[in-house]
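Follow-up to my post from last week.
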Amino acid sequence: MGHTSVTSSRRISPRGSPPNLRRTPPKIRKVLVLREKRAAATEDQIMDDLLLSSKLKRVDSATGSVSPRVCAADALPTTTPAASTALRQTQKAPKTPYVILPASDTFEKFRKTSRVSVDIGGTLIKVVYSSVMDEELPEESLNGHTRKYAYEDGKRVLVNFKKFTDMDRFINFLKEVWTDRKRGDVIHCTGGGSYKYSEIIMKELGVRLQRTDEMRSLIFGVNFLLSTNVDESFTYHHDAIGRNKFQYRPIAADLIYPFLLVNIGTGISILKVDSPTSYERVGGSSMGGGTFMGLGSLLTPAQNFDELLEMANRGDHRNVDKLVCDIYGGAYDELGLKADLIAGSMAKCNRFEETTKKQQHKPEDIAKSLLLMVSNNIGQMAYLYGTRYNLKRIYFGGYFIRQDPITMRTLSFAINYWSKGEIEALYLKHEGYLGAMGSFLDEDGKLDD
Ligand SMILES: Nc1ncnc2c1ncn2[C@@H]1O[C@H](COP(=O)(O)OP(=O)(O)O)[C@@H](O)[C@H]1O
Ligand SMILES: CC(C)(COP(=O)(O)O)[C@@H](O)C(=O)NCCC(=O)O
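User reply:
Got it. Predicted complex:
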């Protein structure tokens, strides 16, 4: 595999091995490292801005038309004044991305009682819960929508998003925030853990559990987010500068379908979605986020996902991957394979030969190679399913993505390269919460008590 590698923009010599940072004179190396660090910090800042503001270019996903940078929340219907919130704890505007529920009979009830949902997957516990917000929102946190709008209807119902890696912490958190819960109340649940941990959850929280099928939850979730949150989905353009790397891709509710959803959690589920109620899981793969974490923890000293990802962002995969130029001495022009394409992931790490036996490889380089290997593979698979079902938009969900530049660049490159620009790779702000969001909304789950 590894046909769709994305490599760093440093130029490689056509008939030699690629330049290596370690061979660069120390002074220049220092400058290069500093520059890379600064670039990474800017990237983080851009990602935060992306999630909390609406100052990015908007290109309509269906028509391709570019719209002015209007505010996201303006597109939401106005809410009616708050009903009694006596039972509810109120809170300040969260610092993380949230969704303000639109006014409709369905959501009105969340003003009066708490609604809590959890998606317990193979790795992470994702919680979505409602809260009432008592203060007006600062302009920035409102995705740019005007102060007037914020004052108008006073209290708002927010949907909050939080993830846990630990069951005890998750339970304790809910005990703290879900203060108005009483016996007979329901916690909405999805994911494998909604079976595995049902008894603990019910016993500890003293509530009943209502289960929604994982795939149904994903579709409900993505449908709600795409149709409610104007700036939910975006594209990633690695070669652009600054904010232009990201473009929002709003889409009219009646044009959302059909699309392909590739959910990258511990493993991968691929769904062809024709409508909120008509969908099919057309494929899957075991080479997902769990693989990146598992192999990453075997092969590097990283202590957690964030460290591993950060390592990958510093690494140079060309030290561990065999490129086309390592085999051909340059490009393989007859097949259109560029010299810097990955020919074999981690192929430079084999210790079966005398010449390579004693070679040491940097963990950063291994982490980068691993991330590229997993993302390339997913990108190509997504493209193949997209083509098979003639779908023009592929939404990527799941906590693996983490809006990471390398991951998004690799996925987008693969889709764009193989489909010759016919299929678009799209990302979601609430990528990791599709399942939890869907079960939050589902009224017809199965009660377990
Ligand atoms: N803080 C984190 N801790 C663990 N895994 C993380 C973290 N952030 C991102 N991930 C990635 O997200 C994957 C889990 O994604 P998720 O969508 O929550 O799947 P699941 O439902 O299987 O838990 C992990 O396998 C890992 O690759
Ligand atoms: C079993 C799962 C649906 C569980 O979801 P997850 O916890 O990974 O989000 C998923 O891991 C998966 O689809 N795995 C791939 C299985 C396959 O080879 O089709």
